[in-house]
Records
---
Amino acid sequence: MQSPLHVAVKKGHLDFVKEILRLNPELAEVVDQLKRSTPLHIAATLTKRPLGIVRSLLSAAPNMCFVHDQDGMTPLHVAAVNGNIKVLKVFLRMKRQAALERTTRGETILHLCVKNCQLETLKELVEITYDLELLNSEDSDGNTVLHLAVAYKETEMVKFLLEKGDKIHKNAVNKKGQTIKDILEQTISCSKKPIKDKDGKIKKEVDEDNLEEAEEEKQREVEEERLRQADIMLKNLFIEKHVSRAKQVLKRSKDEKWLEEQNTALMVVASCIATLSFQVGMNPPGGVWQDNDGHEAGTSIMSYDKHGDFYSIIQVSNTIGLISSLSVILLLISGLPCKKYFVFILRVTLWIAVTASAATYFYTIGYLTNEILEKAVLVEEALEYSVEIWLWLMLIILVGHGLRFIWKVIGHNRRSHIKHVLGKDTYCPNV
């Protein structure tokens, strides 16, 4: 099933390994017929004098770092499982990209360290492989190293990982829609209330004659107490590090996406209004004079008309529309933190710009209409009805936003009342 090189590596005979590789270096690439493992896989499990053997094998066949056995693990994965940090350093020094290899379940060497309780190995690997971005890598279930550390109640690992600050995604959501806080609440250990007799004394559920069962019950209670203490430590740590539930993270992500969409829409509308307003300012209704015969060339013809009030109104409303739209553009590109109330201010500003553009249009049409009768109908009836419809539309929008705000306030107060009645968050509803 195995070559002589497999046997020499397994026995830890460095001299035999060197001599075999000198005579037949191709044996370094041979896999056994049972577990599909290479000599490097076996060397990764050694605890005594493994470095010389690993270096010799890597010198003969460096690409064997990327070979997977029947369990889907490379030699680096095997070394991580066994906590052979010195061997891992040799691997990473000679073939750094081998750290990116994953098992059949998408697990990295950091995931395997957590699963096999290799705290010191995890610490070393995090520092060594930081530039490879393994710290936030996900397995096939979307779990990061931090997800697994919380699920396995490895409090020291969780504390170490959370101390990385912004380097680690503490609010990452896996494929089940869970953050590390959701996993903690799901796997929390709720202690059972002791059963008491009529006199109020705690009953002994274990028969004192059966010492084996009594010892097992005692060990179980010790383990449950350890898990409860781990739950308390993790809960306090999450509060300190501001870890959120998946519902809050997804809501925050949804809000950010909504804000981005709103910013894009506001920018497009503001740009269109600014373009139209600038065009009206540069090319006023009726055009400009082309000569200096009793007037100045380049000035608006409309400004010399007997209905000069129309020109003043058009220019004022057009200027309001231009300044309002440009203000929205300026605020959007200023880099200020954009929140919902900020978007509301921008919306109101655009409402003013749209209203001013509508007023500019109506007064322009009123001026450009030739016949007095048609002008009267247009200005008095069309403008009147349009303004009325516009005001009703604005009122509906304001009432809608007002009702929406009231609904949110009522919902928040109701949630606050429920929390006040409960007194505190509870993770053990069955107790």
---
Amino acid sequence: MSDPKNQRLGSVDALRGLSVAAMLLVNNPGDWGHVYAPLQHAAWHGCTPTDLIFPFFLFIVGVSIALSMGGRIEAGAPKAPMARTVLERALRILLLGLVLHALAWWLMDKPHFRLMGVLQRIGICFALTGLVALYLRASLQWALLSLLLVGYGGLLLAGGDLSQAGNLAARWDSVLLGPLAYQWDAARGLAHEPEGLLSTLGAWASCLLGLRAGEWLRRGHTGRLCLLGLAALALGYAAQGLLPWNKQLWTSSFVLWTGGWAALALLAAHQLVDRHGWPALGRSFGVNAIAAYAGAWVMAVVLEGMGWAKPIYTLGLGWLARAVDPFAASLAFALCFVLVWALVVRELDRRRIYIKV
């Protein structure tokens, strides 16, 4: 049985890995025109199973920070070297995200370069949460989390309507990112960026929630972890009447709703894997998470940019689309894509090769 106070937890590696595998699954269908509804993001307001994936990953980032740094902080280790390590790693993650976007811009002949993205958001949240773990005691961490939830939610509500074109976050991104956003309407001067700048406040709150959950896990306070999950779910469900769940805006209700599920998933994984010895499914993805995500991105971009993706799909699974169902064929392609990378990370794990960014 693993002791959460001093050992790496298989449950955390497993949840991180399953989140990455799920990212690969939903990001790489064989045919974007035929994707089952649960494997799509909500068009705007709402929360599908797919919308849980990125919040789960950021929650686990916070948990991992607590597990990796909490003991050293308690032991009185110098904070400056740890802060430097946190910032250096965050910068590497952010720069990797920029490189991947540059590759997509070049190979896929995109009309403009996109500045923000998944890895960029992870890097920012990792840096901010790591510094919070180092320099703010628990009570101030809770206060900051509450301030983010209430303050960011208040900004969105005070900033006008919550439509895709009229929300405050979109207006900020239009000014600060402009044509470097995911979508840019030059005629109206309007940007749309799912990983935008202002909405990163909500994403940071998800990471902070994971930090506090990870600290309780590290100390063995699993009862508090259960209460956190249930309370967050209840608050997130109640708050949607005022501020709807919305992943692209990363609303405060979305933070609480997804964070509640993540806390309960962490508790369940800890009990099953760490306490009762169940297999840590997804661990191989989890110990090479960023490398797997980046490698899969490169593979997908090269296949698409070289014009190979559609022929591979047609030759390999076209018969399934015709004989059974195009949705099933599209899902089968995504599953094959994940399987390829499952074999890659399993071999890396077998050889004890862990690529750290």
---
Amino acid sequence: MAHFLLINGPNLNRLGQREPQIYGSETLNDLEQQLISFAAEHKAELTCFQSNYEGAIIEQIHAADGKYDGIILNAGAFTHYSYAIRDAIASVNVPVIEVHISNIHAREPFRHVSVIAPVTIGQIVGLGFTGYRLAILALLEKIEGRAETWKK
């Protein structure tokens, strides 16, 4: 059975309260429960982690090496400037998919650049919670060998 790690970064613990016109009214707990069930339906296990601290996210990425089959990462604002998270992703042999609830390319200019995208196998943006489900499906294809051309 595949085992994936979901990492949500800063301010995602505020889902349901933070800018509901952008992020919706569902909470982080709602998201995690939906994804745990979705993963189980696809014969996979999902472990969830959220932190507002860069170092804690880096430590989770490091610990994932050899433990998980893939990482789904919404690094929040760290996406746009954390070279430390970028380097952590590059240092492990675990495929990572970057996910964002909103379309970062259609928002403020500072959100258009992701410093972590070049070391991930893909980026899913603007599809709300559906983007996380798509990331689970993509990681399943990756580990089942149906995505051989994807890097990492």
---
Amino acid sequence: MAARARIEDVATAAGVSIKTVSRVLNREPNVRPQTRERVMQAAQALRYTPHVSARSLAGNRSFNIALLYNNPSDNYMMGVISGVLSACAHEHYHMILCPAPLQEDEVLECVDELMARSRPDGLLLTPPLTDSPVLLNRLDELEVPFAMISPKLRDQHVGVAMDEPLAAEQMVEHLAGLGHKRIAHILGHPAHGASGWRLAGYRRGMARAGLAQDPALEVPGEFSFESGVAAAKVLLDREDRPTAIFAANDDMAAGVIHVAYERGLRVPQDLSVCGFDDTPMSRQLFPALTTIHQPTDEMGRMATLALLGYMRDQTCTGIRCVPHTLIVRRSTGPAP
């Protein structure tokens, strides 16, 4: 079996110092592009992989980043996790998955324990943790670099987001174009910025279509299947029930379809149903769900790269916007 390549071997092959190789592999700035390319080619040719413990000791870093989450949608989180893992593998980092409790005081204890036990170099936050002033203040106190996915406030922060109001508005436009006039909306969890954005887009879409906005057609949810079931029962119990229901995520839309079939309603002939996120479940439902494709894996990947970039250069701030797509499937059709 061939001996494992050492950093000295890479330096010799590239014709540079060991320190230069280290700077290139750690993505540090102020290395000439030609030198960086030569070192990377040498490392690939030798199949060199850095030894994590040696890197940690040399740079006083753990080469771990922690993904802190408290989100009821497993489908959403699986996409984010996939993207984070992809970026970590490319950048020679490891991901620590850290579920956070609901209560803010318990979240602070969770973060303090995480920092003491695992010493991550930075944190990734998912909603609704992105919108917790208490948590953000604690991270600032600890001087821990962090990046956010879909934060409500976007000034002077690092991360990635999507134009969710526009996406929701386009969904309402799709339903109105099918002749629907009574379009209901199931809101997401009130602590999530996404819930407010999607509601704003729904209202804007109704106004642009010239449709009356009935507060009774705006029903609270929590981004979970169970809350979609509860909201659907409220809406479908009405004498003047809606002909279309736009749920703020796919999990709740699945709950709506479940209740519709329990009551003998055909989707989409009697009731059009649509969601948001384009999770794998949206393609597995029958009928397949009309939804907004939110590239959660790409958002996880981009947020990770933004965090690592900020850790190297703290002037690299800003929230990058990712595109969305309206995916029309068989769960929406002409108004009855």
